[in-house]
Design brief:
It contains twelve helices and 21 strands. With about 400 residues, the chain is of the alpha+beta class. It folds into two domains: about 300 residues, BirA Bifunctional Protein, domain 2, CATH 3.30.930; about 80 residues, Anticodon-binding domain (Rossmann fold), CATH 3.40.50.800. Helix 1 crosses helix 8 and helix 2 packs antiparallel against helix 5. Bound molecules: adenosine-5'-triphosphate and magnesium ion (MG). The site of magnesium ion has 2 residues, from strand 13.
Length: about 400
């Protein structure tokens, strides 16, 4: 990306109503634009972060044999009426709209009903099971409070995965594989150390669901973890009964705050039963399909990573999600000529700050955008056949020979 040719600009100020750190920083750094409370546009840099997060999730889910699809946001009320979830009295965050020809449609807040309904066309025998499908999709929720930047959107991006099985054992086995995949995903996103699998409410036949909670001060959930952090509970289930069940003492737990980045459920028959999703088993008996569902808040993750790593100078992206790995600045005639040449060879990895502005401004923008490495080439560094390389995360500065730089950029 050549900054002189891009429409994006860093901003001195965030919108006045943007009180969340993640929202303010991402707007100022030119990653997102605020339309209104809880509704954001993703600009070129922000979109690249989202795509990087999606790629990591996609890779890990594809390894489990999951297939990617894309379902509609517009919802026919029918399947939702069968589960009782179309009524505003049951689900209070619906956005609904009316057809000109008459009738109401919903904007999907999640997709259990339509996916279960759709798969009635494709599942009929035990031979069709197990199967698992997922999507990255925009969800709509009429959230009462939308003051947390992209941590809580009224329109947001979720990865939702649904699995279908012929037995409880098979569901359990797959669920355990998803747990492991989720841990790998959060490790790769750079938040493995501070993301805890947490017992939460909402389980159907397993009593609990599992949430993945990333510890950040602005997290909206209160969670309790023991000293070695192997046992973590959401406040909603942390009561005397649960303490007794796990044979643990309240005093051994510390209270902290987390942001829910993922949530997994063994649904069993919760949706397949009312929607009539059945299969014929080997003995020719009709049976109800076992289901699980597994969410990850993709856009929320971008906000969580922002909150976790940002410092007073701006964003700090882990390399795995950074929109670009390098921020390149050329100084002086020879330095600029060399920078032009390097950029032209490695455009996909580099933000090239070729704008006609002061060096100090360029460096400040590199820091605000949180690009992992800044490369500076000047007449002075060229006199040593080198470039200067500065790490955003550690501030470490090193000279790198042009030869090594070329190899690094070429991924050697
Ligand atoms: P919360 O308790 O934070 O409202 P939830 O339990 O209602 O979330 P789920 O239905 O489990 O959310 O959705 C799956 C994932 O989608 C969540 O784990 C979270 O990461 C993300 N998510 C949920 N609501 C929002 C939102 N309004 N904005 C951004 N991400 C969200
Ligand atoms: Mg949840």
């Amino acid at each position: 990306m050549r900054l002189s040719k891009s429409f994006i600009k860093t901003l001195r100020e965030a919108p006045k109503d943007e009180t969340a750190k993640n929202g303010a920083l991402l707007v100022r750094a030119g990653f997102i634009h605020k339309e209104m409370a809880g509704v954001y546009d993703y600009l070129p840099l922000g979109l690249r972060v989202i795509e990087n997060i999606k790629s990591i999730i996609r890779e890990e889910l594809n390894k489990l044999g999951c297939e990617e699809i894309s379902m509609t946001a517009l919802q026919n009320p029918e399947p939702w009426e069968k589960t009782g979830r179309f009524a505003d009295s049951e689900v209070d965050i619906w956005f609904k709209t009316e057809l000109n020809s008459g009738g109401v449609l919903g904007l999907a807040p999640t997709h259990e009903e339509p996916i279960t309904n759709m798969l009635r066309t494709y599942i009929s025998s035990y031979k069709d099971l197990p199967l698992s499908v997922y999507q990255f999709q925009t969800k709509f929720r009429n959230e009462l409070r939308a003051k947390s930047g992209i941590l809580r959107g009224r329109e947001f991006l979720m990865k939702d995965l649904y699995s279908f099985h012929d037995s409880e054992e098979d569901l359990d086995k797959f669920y355990a594989e998803v747990e492991k995949a989720y841990n790998r995903i959060f490790d790769r996103l750079g938040i493995g150390d501070c993301t805890y699998e947490t017992f939460a409410s909402g389980g159907i036949f397993s009593k609990y669901s599992h949430e993945f909670q990333t510890l950040i001060p602005v997290g909206e959930d209160t969670i309790y973890h023991n000293n070695d952090k192997s046992l973590v509970f959401n406040k909603e289930v942390f009561n005397d009964e649960v303490l007794a069940e796990f044979n643990v003492d309240k005093a051994d737990f510390a209270e902290t705050t987390g942001a829910e980045v993922g949530n997994i459920f063994k649904l069993k028959f919760k949706y397949s039963e009312p929607l009539g999703l059945k299969f014929i088993d080997e003995d020719n008996n009709a049976k109800t399909v076992y289901m699980g569902c597994y969410g990850i808040g993709v856009s929320r993750l971008m906000g969580v990573i922002t909150e976790k790593f940002a410092d007073e100078k701006g964003l700090i992206w882990p390399e795995s999600v950074a929109p670009f790995k390098y921020y390149l600045v050329g100084i002086g005639d020879e330095g600029t000529k060399k920078a032009d040449e390097i950029y032209s060879q490695h455009q996909d990895q580099i933000i090239y700050d070729d704008r006609d502005s002061r060096i100090g401004e360029k460096f400040a923008d590199a820091e605000l955008m949180g690009i992992p490495y800044r490369i500076v080439i000047s007449d002075k560094t060229l006199s040593e056949d080198s470039a200067e390389l500065v790490s955003r995360a550690t501030g470490e500065t090193a000279m790198i020979t042009l030869e090594n730089l070329a190899q690094t950029l070429a991924g050697k």
